[in-house]
Each structure stands twice: as structure tokens, then as C-alpha cells.
Amino acid sequence: MVACIVNLIESLKNMKKVWLPACCLLHMTAILWWTLPHSFGGTPQEETEHSDLETRLFNGLALSDHSLLKSFFLSYIDVTGSQQYWDFFAPKSPLFHQYLSVCESIRSDPEEGKIACEGKALFSNLYGNSTKFKPFGSYSSRLYRLTENLASLEEPILWEAFAHYYQTQHKTPFANNGTTQLVLHQFELHPRLNDLPKAGYRMDKLLWTSH
User: Fold this and answer.
1) Could you say which of 79, 114, 139 is where a domain stops?
2) pTM, two decimal places
3) Which of 59, 71, 135, 179 has the fewest CB atoms inside 10 Å of its own CB, making it the most exposed?
């Protein structure tokens, strides 16, 4: 009996020597893949002068031809919480959650302090409206980081490009010559405001309008 226990302990020790490095390698590989730009695979070769080797490399990095592996990495990132924003724990942590909506027209509710799209939004990641909810394998955190940074950059040329992209993705009468609005939704993380609107810690403002 004692010999069996000793053998079991030795087996577990040997497994640790294999599994611990394997788990570390898996985690580092998943994080590396997650931080890479995922636009590689969608870069048209005819528009970029990329060689065949570069195109294959970009598609490989995006796992364009490996849907199972791609789904596994997405699930792993979500399950382990590796997409979290560790700067929330930094000395200068963010003050707001920030979301964007691209609208053909807007309606305002001054009493509630809200601005929303009139009709269906061309794009909005407010409350996860831009994509259907998926328990695992979602790009919602990546999309949130993109819109959060875009709102903070305060670069009208980037806001215009962002709004124009979603305008052209929708075949509407406004697609070519209509007015487009970019609305910013902010939710304060450290409430310090007086005389808050009825909407609570939410503050909306019109960020940019096409001319």
C-alpha cells in the first residue's frame, strides 16, 4: 500500500514537470494570438502589394483556415478572463466605460440625459447590441477596447472613418449622401458628479456629425 502511494506521488511529480510548462506555453500562446491585430486575414492582397508568403503568414496569424483552433483560443481567453483590462487596477484607473453608436438620425431626451439613434443604429456596442450574445468565443471585449480607445483619442478624422465604414456597410438611402452622427455613451466608474440626470451615471453626447 505504501509503495502504491509513493508511486502515485512520483507519477504526479512527473506529470507536473510536463503539464505546468505545457499550460504556461498554452496561456502565453493564447495571449500572444489575442493581442495580434486580427485584420491580417481580411487584408485583400490586390490592395496591399503583399507577396504570397506574406498573405499566407497573415492568414495563418489570424487562424483563417483553422476555425476549431480559433474557436478554442477565443473560448480560452473568455473562460480565463484574459481579455480583462488590467489598467482598471492601475494607479490612474479609467474614469468611464465608453461606448459608441453610429446613427442616421438621433433623438434626445434632455430630462433623462440620453441621446439615442432614431430607428435602428448603423452600429452600437451599447449593451452589446452590435452582435448576438455568445457565452464563449465572442469578440465583444476586443470591440469594446477599440471603441473605448477611439472615443479617448479625440481625433475627428478617425471618428469620420469609423462612422463612414458602418454607413457604407448598410444599404440605406443615406449610404452615399446622408448625415451620420457618432454618439458617445459614458458610464462613470467613480461617481463624483452632482445633479446627476435620471439616467444615473450615464452621460451621452454627440461626438461627431458628418457634413
Assistant:
1) 79
2) 0.64
3) 135
